[in-house]
Protein: Bis(5'-nucleosyl)-tetraphosphatase PrpE [asymmetrical]
Amino acid sequence: MKLDIIGDIHGCYKELLSLIEKLGYRREGENLTHPDDRRLAFVGDLTDRGPQSLEVVRYVYQLVIKQKFAFYVPGNHCNKLYRYFLGNNVKQQHGLETTVAEYTKLSKKEQQEAKQMMIELYEKSPLYMEIAEVNAVIAHAGIKEDYIGKQGNKVKTFVLYGDITGETLPDGRPVRRDWARYYNGDRWIVYGHTPVLAPRFINKTVNIDTGCVFGNKLTAFRLPEEETVSVPSKQPFVEEKFSKYDEEADN
Structure:
């Protein structure tokens, strides 16, 4: 298997289409194909903050559920939208409000379709994926070696939110431990969740959330080639949204 794993999209639908075209995929009717028999995967956080979240959901639903051409694992924003669609009392903040605004502009029929697609996509997808053919694990915020193969609340929290300490930064974001520095497994861990200006390689992990929704770029990691491919964002650049992992570690 040859795989192209795409980082956090956050409603940046046009950039998603540009990246998929740059990766060499071609559309045949509603289906995608690739001349080199490649497949796609998504690390989650399809929605929120960006301009076309529900178009991204519709597109990924077609690839994953209908065509069975792509793989998907949910992110924390996917989890939040899923709970909103179930009718839970979810705070409309940190980007969910943008997706809800899109949703409320739809007709009742379109709303029902969007809701059903997101619920089915979420419920039919694993929390994280082990893909032996490319010696990789795809998990939204990453995963520790001793969690691979396990489930439960601790694993779910780690995979969706990262290695959080329970403390918060002045801007309200959670404090996270840099788990990737201590990873010593022999499988690739491909993840996103924390925006970085360039794909962050450390040990055998790579963070491919290059902050498309914050004006940087949308990135894919290709296996077995171990290469990245990116397209520029069409969104305004917001410098303070990007992690300074390595600067923090050096201080």
Summary: The chain has seven helices and 14 strands.
